[in-house]
Amino acid sequence: MRLKLLSFHLRAWTHFPAQILLGCGFSGQIPDSIGNLTQLRYLSLNLNGFSGSIPPSIGNLKNLYWLDLGDNRLTGTIPVSNGTIPGLDLLVNTWHFHFGENQLTGTIPPQLFSSSMQLVHVLFDNNKLTGAIPSTLGLVTTLEVVRVDRNSLSGTVPSNLKNLTGVNELYLSNNQLTGPIPDLTGMNALNYLDISNNSFTTSSVPQWASTFQTLTTLIMENTNLQGEVPSSLFGLPQLQTVDLSNNKLNGTLNLGSSPSSQLELIDLHNNSINSITLGPAYSMELVLVGNPVCKQSELSTYCTSASSNANYSTPSNNCLVPICSLNQTSSPNCRCAYPYAGSLVFRAPSFSDLNNSSYYHLLEGSLMESFKSLPVDSVSLSDPTRDSRNYLEVSLEVFPFGQDRFNHSVVSAIGFILSNQTFKPPNAFGPFYFDGTTYLHFADSPASSRSLNTGVVIGAAVGGSILVLLVITLGVYAFRQKRRAERVTEHSHPFASWEPTKGSGSIPELKGARWFSFEELQKCTNNFSEANEIGSGGYGKVYRGSLLTGQLLAIKRAQQGSMQGGVEFKNEIELLSRVHHKNLVSLVGFCFERGEQMLVYEYVPNGTLKDSLSGKSGIRLDWMRRLKIALSSASGLAYLHELASPPIIHRDIKTANILLDEHLNVKVSDFGLSKSMGDTDKYHVTTQVKGTMNLYNLYGILDPVIASGASLGGLEKFVDLAMHCVEESGVDRPTMGEVVKEIENIMQLAGLNPNAESDSASASHEEANKGNNHPYSNASLFEYSGGFAPSKLKPQ
């Protein structure tokens, strides 16, 4: 895809906050006009074929959070401002500089870094950069990952680099650095340190190397080390790999009495070690080939090259693995299917033991959590390897739920989650990208339809010669099957129990809801498995299910002790089937057979408002979003009160019964206590309101999520409205229609558009994430901010 098409994208998407164009096949230069997209928060152009220099105009993108230009063919220098021309040093609010795997030249400009920057990632690896590492890098104390390896950097390492006490991964390897080995004392957060293949002054193993309690990997190959290796080094509790090969180490190697239980590899090949002392707990791989000690025959086991086999593959979940047909693969749940596959590429993982299954189990769980709103059965990881760039590549397969293949929309959704920074891997894996393969087995593929049509034509032509002989046989068979089906229907028809003579009332009159057989719901929930359970209560349990069409369902299955009588169950589904409003959960259908009572609703992925207000869901709700939720909830209730015929009173409104969809739109749910009102008693509903409000110190009792945020326009009027909604006498309370109008007025008077999205959803991200220990924490970059406190609004 050429430059001209990219320019079209830039013109068309001027107001979009994100430009995620990863792996789109672009080539040519990045247009300088990209600097006009001043509202951009995310700019990911990695894994393309861009050439030429980095446009200085990117420095105009003052709101940029994520800048990824990696894995291209970019040349030239890193641009900085000069008074008239912008540069990347102006991006003080940007957290991510990902420029690795290009052909950038020149020095790293000292002006690029300053103490006012918010950077957490500086990835300049695998380029052609020259000159010294600028001392200004040590001013950016927010840094957590630094990769400047595989360049041609020279000179000494700045002494103030040890000020970066939050850095987890530090790569300085494969350069031409000189002078003393850098003093990293105090960098106690280090997990992965690689300073190998440089020309440092000859010295012993530095003392600071034995002090980092979180260190998993120490690589100091070819760094002019001499003397004995301190035994204290091997006792670091998290240590997995020590590579001190190709140095001048000598004397006795003493592994100590209690080396780390995590140790997997000690590589000391090509040194001058002449004896070793092994402790009783020794079990790791030790490589001493090329040392004088290998002349002792009894130590031949340790005198071979290091092995690099990593054979992890997601195991099956205690089930019998089936034999699958061509191109199908067995999932961890032992189901044959066509998975969506690709590679997860991690640019700076914090570990080196690729056989440690605990890391991959964490990654599998994190992936499934990200796919929870999609019809995904399971994920499988395999073949972890370190490539030539020292990136970790892991093969990923995502398996469909409820069918053997995905449709187009689900594959697109999976790709979006993995490519748009909505998926946050566990901290150990760090920054990543996803390189997906082409999916050839869509359930809704036009090619499949054409193949099917061709097969039908061929089958008809071949079968035509014997069609006459089969007509009579098929006719008899069809007649018998019809009679058999009629007999089965008589026993299993959902309305068979509703016979007026048996006191069950007339057959339900449904508007849009459908009947599901028990077998159908059993299949789409994997036999009501515990893994698909998404809720429970006194009535029973709720399960996630998926139809063959890919539609997700929430299936509420009553337990024996809570089941209603036939009349009551019929009344409930009749009531729900005629409720159709954008702010009410839709009833898809029901099941009433085999002694079961199940209600099938649309699936609402973001859970309850209660979970969001309590912080359990990870979604943060600002004042505007809370007003919108209140408005939408009131709109749904106003529909029930004033437009449903006959009117319906919910009678159980609470934050646990208000659900949020993928766009945080409200869906009022759980009509189990609802009551249908006839015209005669429409205005004679009596309720007793419990409790009173302390209106003093109103701002002191606010949720701190909104109390410390932007101006809370309309708060007092909103509280006044809430107080009117809980008046003791029902006649003194406003109708829900009046509540809707008043909230709309409150929002307009406060300068808030009831139809607009929350602008602070992205603007408050930096502040909201200051407390996180890692940029890949559970706090999503795509969280919304917005809600009303659970005790403040009780209009019924």
From TrEMBL:
Main location: membrane
Residues holding ATP: K556
Entry annotated with the keyword Iron-sulfur: no
Domain Protein kinase: 528-796
Molecular function via GO: ATP binding; protein serine/threonine kinase activity
Swiss-Prot/TrEMBL catalytic activity: L-threonyl-[protein] + ATP = O-phospho-L-threonyl-[protein] + ADP + H(+); L-seryl-[protein] + ATP = O-phospho-L-seryl-[protein] + ADP + H(+)
Compartments where found: Membrane
Pfam families: LRR_14, PK_Tyr_Ser-Thr
EC numbers, comma separated: 2.7.11.1
Coiled-coil intervals: none
Keywords: ATP-binding, Glycoprotein, Kinase, Leucine-rich repeat, Membrane, Nucleotide-binding, Repeat, Serine/threonine-protein kinase, Signal, Transferase, Transmembrane, Transmembrane helix
Residues that span the membrane, as ranges: 456-479
The protein, known as: non-specific serine/threonine protein kinase
Region Disordered, residue ranges: 754-777
Entry GO CC: membrane
PROSITE patterns: PROKAR_LIPOPROTEIN, PROTEIN_KINASE_ATP, PROTEIN_KINASE_DOM, PROTEIN_KINASE_ST
Class in the EC hierarchy, top level: transferase
